[in-house]
Specification:
Two copies of one chain form a homodimer. By secondary structure, chain A is mainly alpha-helical. In chain A, strands 1-2 form a two-stranded antiparallel sheet. In chain A, helix 1 packs antiparallel against helix 4 and helix 2 crosses helix 3. At the A-B interface, helix 1 and helix 5 of A face helix 1 and helix 5 of B. The structure holds a DNA duplex.
DNA sequence: ACAAATGATACTAATGTGGTATCTTTAAAG
DNA sequence: CTTTAAAGATACCACATTAGTATCATTTGT
């Protein structure tokens, strides 16, 4: 099972390229050329990233894309959730039925703890890598 | 995005029921009745669990399923991989192209570290919860 | 022999992922 | 003020995965 889909993967690459580029405005065409991602697909991804304010777009001739903030402020976590939605381990396994209210579901606690750790860690990963 | 699919979820419930049951042999019919999982689907899951040696089945009249070992020795991790395969975050984002060999991909390191943590934690979660 | 259980296998429906196609809007350059 | 090079919007399609069904074969206690 993949935890990071192709969308996210491509998006990361594009963002990294933007971060590394010295000219601050980069066109989709350039990204297609260097990243070898199918043009219409990449364009869709860029549009999504734009809507989520992860990058900024400029229309018209001479337009393109650029990062709206420093690369080390862009969280991997945000890119993942942009494409894959909030990733949750699971709702309660037992839908509150069997859960003994004394222990308040050790299992659930543990899983939530793991979840939290992953999120906190993912949040430390930025584009500046 | 779900990290635990319905298969896994159902399987966990079934295993927990087996663990909690005092009679050690439980039929699929009984599981269907109490867990309210579609019969043919549950039967498929049980067959898979049997093949993976996570539970043991007995055919014929009076047959059924039981746990082959103590509930606290059955790892959530194993159940997950049984149904969802080994879960990997992602191959290398850059397919070894851009990776500067000096830093040997900080990103990748971090991700692997997170992955390892999740696995180690998941391995601590057993059916005895 | 029969009935009650699981095993094996093939099929179907719904959803998600990866990708395409087409048309509209914006804005700089000539 | 027209052309042209960019992005925006939207609808569509192919394939894979997930969730679930159906059917028949095999085993085993009574």
């Amino acid at each position: 099972m993949k935890l990071i889909t192709r969308d996210t993967d491509y998006a990361i690459r594009a963002l990294c390229y933007l971060a590394a580029s010295d000219k601050d405005m980069v066109t989709a065409s350039e990204l297609v050329r260097v990243l070898k991602i199918p043009r219409p697909f990449l364009r869709k991804l860029l549009q999504i990233l734009n809507k989520k304010r992860i990058l900024k777009s400029y229309k018209g001739r001479g337009g393109g894309f650029l990062l709206p903030k420093a690369a080390d402020k862009i969280l991997l976590m945000d890119v993942i959730t942009a494409f894959q939605g909030p990733l949750r381990l699971n709702e309660c396994f037992f839908k509150k039925k069997m859960c003994p209210d004394t222990k308040v579901c050790v299992l659930r606690r543990k899983i939530i703890a793991i979840e939290r750790y992953v999120f906190s860690q993912l949040r430390t990963v930025t584009i500046a890598s």
